[in-house]
Amino acid sequence: MPRRAVAALAAATLTALAVPAAVQASATPRPPEPPSDRRLAAEPTRHDLTREQFYFVLPDRFANGDRGNDRGGLTGTRLATGYDPTDKGFYQGGDLKGLTQRLDYIKGLGTTAIWLAPIFKNQPVQGEGENASAGYHGYWITDFTQVDPHFGTNADLERLIDQAHAKGMKVFFDVITNHTADVVDYEEKSYEYLSKGAFPYLTKDGRPFDDADYADGERRFPKTDLDSFPRTPVVPADKKDLKVPAWLNDPSMYHNRGDSTFAGESSTHGDFVGLDDLWTERPEVVEGMEKIYQRWVRDFGIDGFRIDTVKHVNTEFWTQWATALDEYAAERGRDDFFMFGEVYSSDTDITSHYVREGRLDATLDFPFQEAARQYASQGGSAKKLAGLFGDDHKYTTDKANAYESVNFLGNHDMGRFGAFLKQDNAGASDAELVKRYALANELMFLSRGNPVVYYGDEQGFTGPGGDKDARQTLFASKTADYLDDDQLGTDRTHAADAYDPAHPLYRQIAALAKLRKAHPALADGIQIERYADGGAGVYAFSRIDAKARTEYVVAVNNATEARTAELATESAGTAFRPVHGEAKAVTSGGDKKITVTVPALSAVVLKADKPLTAPATAPAIDLKAPAAGASGTVQVTADVDGGQLNRVVFAAQQGNGRWQVLGTADHAPHTVTHKITAPAGTPVRYKAVVVDAAGRTASDLATTTAGQAPATPVPTATQRDYAIVHYKRADGDYTDWRLYAWGDIADGEATEWPEGHAFTGRDAYGAFAYVKLKPGAANVGYLVIDKNGNKDVSADRTIDLSKTGEVWVEQGKETALDQPPAGAYPPQDTSKAVLHYHRPDGAYDGWGLHVWNGAAEPTDWSRPLTPVRTDAYGAVYEVPLARGATSLSYILHKGDEKDLPADQSLDLTANGHEVWMLAGQQKYLLPQPKGGGAALDLAKSTAVWIDANTVAWNASATAASSQLVYSPTGSLAVKDGALTGEDRAHWLRLNRTALTDAQKAAFPHLAKYTAYAVDPRDRDRIRTALRGQLVATQRAASGALLTATGVQTAGVLDALYGEKAESKALGPVFRGGAPTLSVWAPTAQSVALELDGRTVRMKRDDTTGVWSVQGSKSWTGKPYRYVVKVWAPSVGKIVTNRVTDPYSTALTTDSARSLVVDLSAPELAPKGWANLRKPAAVPLRDAQIQELHVRDFSVSDPTSKHPGGYLAFTDRDSAGMKHLTKLARSGTSYVHLLPAFDIGTIPEKKSAQTTPDCDLKAYPADSERQQECVAKAAAKDAFNWGYDPLHYTVPEGSYASDPEGTRRTVEFRRMVQSLNDAGLRTVMDVVYNHTVAAGQDDKSVLDRIVPGYYQRLLADGSVATSTCCANTAPENTMMGKLVVDSVVTWAKEYKVDGFRFDLMGHHPKENILAVRKALDALTVEKDGVDGKKIILYGEGWNFGEVADDARFVQATQKNMAGTGIATFSDRARDAVRGGGPFDADPGVQGFASGLYTEPNGSAANGTPAEQRARLLHYQDLIKVGLSGNLADYTFTDTTGKRVKGAQVDYNGQPAGYAAAPGEALAYADAHDNETLYDALAFKLPAGTSPDERARMQVLAMATAALSQGPALSQAGTDLLRSKSLDRNSYDSGDWFNALHWDCRLGNGFGRGLPPAADNRDKWPYAKPLLASPELKAGCAQIDGASAAYRDLLKIRTTERAFGLATADQVQSALSFPLSGRDETPGVITMRLGDLVVVFNATPERQKQTVPALAGKGHALHPVQAGGADATVRTAVYDTASGTFTVPARTVAVFTAE
């Protein structure tokens, strides 16, 4: 149950005397009637204590009555016992017995109450080394139940109290509830204060909460543990039971936030100079402290408490604690039990708060202390006193008022009043100082309140300062520091006892005490101000005994000469006679005024000879309610006429609540305060009753309406480097003034009092000082003081850094402005720039300003501008500006030494024409840069959680705290610059750290990121956090949200789950015919199986994150989906996804459902499948590959029985199969199938597929209409290349005769079987680098199961799309596993013979090697296939977010060297074709397209000389390609140098990169980019004949086919296939992708302008070509080219020299004998063992003489000699000269005879 609600105002609530008539239950309740006049008039005018005189004493420093307890019963050195009378920081020996023995001395002062500094048992010593000191003062309590042994025993205390009571003196304890001794340490060993805004408390389950919400005891306090704190509290083993009561040993009872800065929130929550700060918002602490002090009330009969550090405890604590103690004392007959608090502030708004809201009886009157010092010691204005007493109404409550205030002049913390006198009056005589001291005493004793004498003050003690320096012993001292101290009014030193009742100050105090006793009105009579001089001089007031109606007039004078003043009184014609001071009797006139002369530095008291006359008229009252719309604390005032000594009692009522007494005002202006707490619009009613001296009453009512309370401002995200205080003094003299600052200031900025930061800056307003702030600073407290610590304004002030970093204050005025006052700064002179420059060393000689842009006269470096002057701030430079200048470029330098390394620019528009700079700092000090705003974007995820405990995040370096906030419900959102929904969220705290070398290696793209570690205390909640919304946030110390972003979690998911799940079988797994279905979904909140219309529960393995369910045989063949409830960042909410299985083995139509299918089931195997005999495996280095699209293969073939499908490959008599068979017989060994897995962009039902709604054949060859029609149908037609993977391991359904069910599985297998039967092994084009969709798209599978894991995310958390689509992240364990598992499934279950990896460079090399390893483990005996014979190759392109191994070692061209896995080589491709795929002008020529030898006229080719040079370089690239792209292959290049393949340049990269033959795949064209025929159409001269084009096509293909290593050719390239110049035909339909096996159907050229989406920019080049008859290929060209290519294949596959196994063999056998400076442009002569190959790309017959072969016989290769190409048969060789003669545009292969 919640702690009992404390009725803080119970005593003030009044039940209406009139009971309203009964009303119906349904009627709106009526507010209670106001209390009667009589009831209110009975309220007391005074409460509790108003006539006490306190003597405040530190027992250790007063008298030593028992030397046996000096060491507190401890042994050892002073660090053990705490005793060292020679050190002011240690016990001196005073004790309770000594006090008891000296009670008469205390009584002699007139003392009525002794205030004992804390006497509870303390920790003897705290601190180390120079900072070690003892607990002599009593504020380091360990045991609240017993007297500290250094002071004696509990019995000694009882005797002291008894004897004091016997002498008529009360005893007050100094009590502490704020803290205990320093016992609790922090495990982190750091002690800087950590704010609640940045480091909130956490519940046991990680929810942040504000303890203030529970501090009033009305709500149950959250459950916490030792992990709930900003720091981890620990207690040394030897101190675990040190504190008493035992509950104090629980470290969770403390705030545990670090050391207080004494500014802002830290004032209540921080450790008071390391002392353990109690968590006073907790009910256990409130109740515990109540019980502690109730015991002392019960057992020792004490009379009251002085409460320490009140303002460092939350107000709600005092409301509950003080009320409970009051009630407890009252129950024991102690109605006058009195509690006053130490509220160390001179601001009456602050001190009075603890009386009104904290329910204390009074506070120590620090405002009085300051005013008294200013008046009596500093000669200040009497108006200061007027202001002080004018605020007395703020203390008025139903149980207290200002008459109970506890006044004092000095104390043990701030210092003695004698010390202040010496500081303020340097050079003054002892007599003057004693006189001023006496004046201060008179002011304290004669004005309202209870005076305090601090022990020793009565003996004239001084001292150099506060704390230890103000704690001298009254007995003879042995402390050197004390022996040096002066004593006022005596020649005595501290070497002697000081109990001298004859001391002038002792005697004066005793006399004042007697005066108050004789005239009680001087203690608590009504105090009415009569006079206040504007400067030094008289302050006067009346004190009136209300019962006797006797008036006293008190006048004080702080001037150094007598002053006369005319004073008002309450009586006419009345004599006033002196009762104190040197004054004459006076008589009031008819105007009731008297004239009084007050001697210098003195006080006088005059008493009226007779009582006030009876009032002539009864009182009348006019009550004034606050204006409508008021809220918070307001003033309520009543105007009174008539009567006499009128007092007014106020009451208030809000809404339908009870009436509450507000208190009594006993003099005009009759004012009290009221706190309006009702909701806006609520009626607020007031009643006031006036009572005059005759007891007559009058009353009035007033009403107002509650307004809207100001909303608690949301802290704003503003970061500042400096706080600046501008200060204006009338005299303009700032020499001895400085800024004293505390709070959120940077290390090293704090100063010892009264040092500070000088007002060095000067501007038009006055002077300014500045202080550097710590990162994330929220507020800074400050005072403006002089060198002696005298304050310009007494109140502590604070800069709220969320609003401003700059304030303007004026001498003597409390108000601080956050904007300069109007007119403070005249308009700037825009004709010049003024730059103020400050150097810490103050050395400005030689420093000059070099200026250029914007300066009227730019300077030479050697002659910079010199300062026009130097001032207190530094050097001042003035720069005349050029007309219209908006900026000024400058460098501050001394010779070659620059202040800042980079050039600087002053933005005159943004910063104005005058700036203040600090040496070495980029930002200007003034004008202040605008604070940085918050970066709040939950749509992004810039924090990267890389492993179990580490987050890499380039977040704000100035943030106070960082954390991961998680919400299981997805409640977090950003609204109006704030994070909402945190009330339902939890935190994982982050500690800043650094990435390790291993982490940087694992995540190289994050190597420069800042690292954060999840706090070890929160790590048990990480797994929970990952299953909800996750946001990384940062806070300023104020709690302002600086940053909020989503979190990338792949790394942590791998660390916690992936590594353990990697070995788990996923998808449908059959054992004994029964399936188990498993899915990896570690972040899912729940996963269920939707099976054939019903839902089946799945079980989560918390170790792996795998959800699984075991089924029965009956499940086989049934459709299913997973129902996944999971946080989806892409839509920002918790979603329930019904999603297919990423490991699906079969699917329904259009992938709507997965099917529970066992791929090993016999019914899915075609006849002969189990014993399928494959063609002999061809090593990768010898592979000749045809790249083929399943649909293209047959959809345009009229001879196919199954057009567009898998079964077309079973049509052995179709034109397509016949052509493939011919290629196989010629040497083609593999058919590379473009993607045939489940494709996401093709409707699988033929009825749903669209076709162009046009007669495409009817349009001209260069028309736009074809592409228009095709584009309209493209989205839903049957064609797509297929690089849109939906399910990786299921065949595409649109290629099957029926997409529903397993037909696709069977037909895919039949396709493989048929190709194998034709002598062709199959390669699958696999696309694991991206998915067709991500996020919550219907076609997103992986990302709807584990959002954000399977896709690769960019720095902002968006999905990378460099591949074209939603990139995957195979570097992540489970995506890498999916790649391996999928490939193995295709290899085992579909007997695929090779895999071509699309964009393999986007895979880690490690992933591809894992595939290789998994395949190598497959055996015929175990798996039905020999995995070692499966070939792997892929696109090793280096681009995108992974480029240059940015995230991992990629599977790129250079990195795959030595692996035996091939990559496509673009080097020779580009050299052969010319230019690159993305040239703006497609006419850039190459080796096989006429560069230099047959220019096409395109300006893009450059001059003839440039063309020749480029052609020769292309020839070097082709030579490297012919070597198999070997990095170390050495040859002579066309410049005559010997170079390695890696030294030949390819667009800034090494041309050669392979380590062995077979690691680079050669090709002249593929499905990407234009077909070879189309590329040559753009590049060859327009007039090139079809025959010549066909020859160049064959020559281009030969450069790949006759190279070392594998070669690939796009299906139809040997048939001059065209796609009508389409650069990117992936979605161009069957029309543009048509593949004709019959030459009579043409080659596809001239089917209209290619689709605009990717080709419009090339239309101007394409249109004339498409209409040209020169490009119309016929059967002669098509069949001739194909035959010639097949001849080359035969040569390639029959001559073993083309398939060398090692780099050394290639180096030995391969050479280019004519390579060098004299190489023929356009001709490459290659010698390969006994073979010589001449590539003549020129339009002329060419002779190539190889002197080394002269005399050696060679002849045209028999295949060509007997082949289909008549032209090549004309190639000849001259043995005598070694000359080969080759026809134009021909490749000729010669063999040695």
Word description of this protein:
This protein has 39 helices and 93 strands. The protein has 1793 residues and is α+β, with helices and mostly antiparallel strands. Among the domains are: 111 residues, no CATH class; 89 residues, Immunoglobulin-like; 86 residues, Immunoglobulin-like, CATH 2.60.40; 89 residues, Immunoglobulin-like; 87 residues, Immunoglobulin-like (Sandwich); 114 residues, Rab geranylgeranyltransferase alpha-subunit, insert domain (Immunoglobulin-like, Sandwich); 432 residues, Glycosidases (TIM Barrel), CATH 3.20.20.80; 82 residues, Golgi alpha-mannosidase II (Immunoglobulin-like). The chain has an 8-stranded parallel β-sheet. An 8-stranded parallel β-barrel has the order 70-71-74-77-78-79-84-85. The chain has a 7-stranded mixed barrel with strand order 52-53-58-57-54-59-60. The longest helix is centred in the last third of the chain and has 20 residues.
